[in-house]
Amino acid sequence: MVKTGGEGGKGQTVRSGGGKGPAFEGGQTPWARRLPHKRGYSQKARDIGHFRSRLAVVNLHQLASWDVSVEVTPESLKEKGILKSLLDGVKILGGSKSGNEIPSGLRFRDVAFSSSALEALKAAGAQIAEN
Known about the structure:
By secondary structure, this protein is of the alpha/beta class. The chain is built from four helices and five strands, in the order H-H-E-H-E-E-E-H-E.
């Protein structure tokens, strides 16, 4: 008696790599072919990490006690503990609380601004370096 003993072992089962694949579903249309094909599908809608930039946010009222002699940069904001991480950049927003005055003569470098923050800073006499 040998392996098959003269019974079976012909055709698909004898060939190397023979047999049904993992996607075979008994003859019905496989799952991957039943799905609708989406035209114009973009990875931009799904993958935030590659296509979108995340900015660290600082509200204007957080700079009320800032020392005017120190230039406001992403690194100096992190050193002072205002920011935990820099992410892809820093943006100053115009959010303010009553009673917090913006010091005049602040100097900014490598920072983005919202329109309301830019207006308030220019009115306070801030120096903004062009990036």
